[in-house]
Fold this protein.
Amino acid sequence: MKPLAIKACMAPVRLLAVLVCTELLVAGQSSLGKARDLVSKGSLKEAEVMLRQIIAADPNEADARMLLGEALALEGVRGESIAQLAEAVRLRPNSANAHNQLGVALSRFVEIKAAREEFEKALELDANLAEAHVNLSLILAQAGEFGPAGEHLDRAIELQRNRRAAAYAHYLRAKVWGAQDQIQKSIAELQKAVQLRPDYPEAWSDLGGMRRLALDRVGAVQALERAVALKPDDALAQYRLGQLYLQGGQALKAVEHLKQALSYTPDDRATLYNLMLALRKTGQLEEAKPIEKRMVELQHQSARASEVGLAAAGLNNEGIQLEQSGNLPAALNKYRAALDLDPTGFGFRLNYALALCRLGRWQDGVVELREVLRDDPDNADAAKALYIASEQAKAQSADVRKHP
């Protein structure tokens, strides 16, 4: 009878173990939910602490690694963000969502080729993942592959149906049609975007721009008035509306919106020119004079840049040749000389910044790369280099503190 007694005693033990495991699982899920809420609210540091605790307790917790990778990416922490998401993919190689999230992080840090591969893998695993279709379409459109980009957006729209979330896919589809000079098709997509999401200022602005191209002035004005009402600091929408008012003989209204646009883009020549015309048409000749003066200054700056540009380009080319021959310090001096001659030459500054990084002068490189991106925010090479340089600069500073 003893074996039976032992067996009877073991049953409650097993039950207790199951209950403990269940409680731990629920606690982990509860913590993960709280961390997810923190990320959605922008409390990234708090979420990061919580997620690290979850992963420390269970290194195989893929959901926590995905969320931590997402939070780190939003903080601009390139290396660990990608590492956490890559580990999540290793733990769940057949998860389309994990591959998609890794692709998002890679894309954020301008690892375009790798990001595309992850989005494609996600769709191999789940062809109905609308988010991956949208993400892949962005990569394709940036590469000028408008046909495939449009196909993925069409599929995303089909999957998302008439939900508010589909507004973004319609907005992107409109941009792809616009790049292909399909004005009416672009308008139709933008109309659908604002129907699904009436508070979508970018879509209203683009709808106004497209209607203007279609010679629908009344419809264009209506859309742009809606855009600036929703987002007054949208310089492009303010400019578009001001230009339409000017062309329609409403110069006083044009002045109001063109001044708004100029307050956000003070050296935009098109805005300056149209504002000058509008001020003259309203009889504000004295106010038009400083605008005209600024336009002349910008023109002189451009002429001066052309004069020195050839000499600076020559120094820059010498720097490239020296770098290719392995003489990086001499190359750095040439890039610096080119930049001194023409500070507006963003290509010169980028080469100088990259040379600083290659010489291990990471902090100096970060400063120069930020300057490049301040003047050229869409420079993908500079953005990618800045993420890498920032991490290296932090590591270098930490090493100095450890070994003063």
